C-alpha cells in the first residue's frame, strides 16, 4: 500500500531528518507537520467510511429502525426492501468507494465521495424544513451531516 506524501525540503544525501535543521534538511517540526498532514486525511477517511458502513449494516439488518424513528409503526416488505437498497446498499458503496480511492492514492477524491452525500442530505433536510416546517430531529441530523462534510472537506485540503 502506497500513500503519497508531499516531499519535504531536504537534501537527498542527508542521512538524518533530525540533524538540527542544517541547510537542505527537514527540521523535526517539518517532519512532524508532514506526518500529521498525511495522517489527518487518512483518519477522516476511515472514520467517515466506517460511519457509512455502520449505518449501512444497521439499516440493512434492521430497516424498521428507520421507519419507527419517523413514527411509521407498520411497514411493508417493499418499504423494508427500499431501506435496505438505499440505506444499506448505497451507503455501503460510499464506504467501499472511499477505501478504494484511498488505496489508489487519491485521498482528496475519497473525502469528496464521503462529503458530497452528506452535503446533499443536509441540503434536502433544510429544504424540507423550509417547506414542511421545523423538525428538531432533522435539524440535528443536518447539523451532524454539515459537520461531517466540513471535516471531510477540511481534511481534503490537507491531503497529500
TrEMBL record:
Residues spanning the signal sequence: none
Membrane-traversing stretches: 43-63, 83-102, 109-131, 137-156
Keyword Membrane annotated: yes
Coiled coil: none
Organism in which the protein naturally occurs: Roseimaritima ulvae
Record key words, sorted: Membrane, Transmembrane, Transmembrane helix
Protein name stated in the entry: DUF4345 domain-containing protein
Keyword Electron transport: no
Organism domain of life: Bacteria
Pfam families registered for this protein in UniProt: DUF4345 (PF14248)
